[in-house]
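User: Here's a chain of 188 residues. Predict its fold as tokens.
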Amino acid sequence: MADRPLNGHRVLALVTNYGVEQDELLVPLNRLGEDGAEVTVAAASMDPIQTLVSDKEPGETVQPTAVFETLDATGHQLLLLPGGTLNADSLRLNDKAIGLVREFAASGRPIAAICHGPWALVEADVLRGKTLTSYPSLRTDIRNAGAKSWVDEAVVSDAEGGYTLVTSRTPKDLDAFLEAIHQALVGS
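Assistant: Prediction complete.
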């Protein structure tokens, strides 16, 4: 449909193949897709992605559409970093994934991270001067990575430092998170 607000926009989601929080991946994928965005889900391998619910129970599986090693991210307008403790901890150890995070920040394209997703931003060293939120247990890591401040809010958008960063705390903040992503892609 021609009247969908995100027609022509491309979003790249980076996840590992195990442990991404189900709603932090599937709700954005579905809503962005419904609004017309093309979403690429990149993982470490083409094996199915096993999501988890509350970091414990198996959730739905998702088939990745790309792998980190061969991914060309140049045509994507926004980078999405879902959480899930296991996913985020593994993602920050993948050099190719962290290189993609750095590429987005250096190019000035927006990045959106929720819950434990900002761990990749810490590892990529792209938080200097930023104000953001996350799952509360990350606040010390975020401050130690040079962020200006960590705040306990549903969503934070910060355009300092050459790129827009949208962050949220948990799945309960997904509505506000997705509205801020929409604004980062198309403006008001």
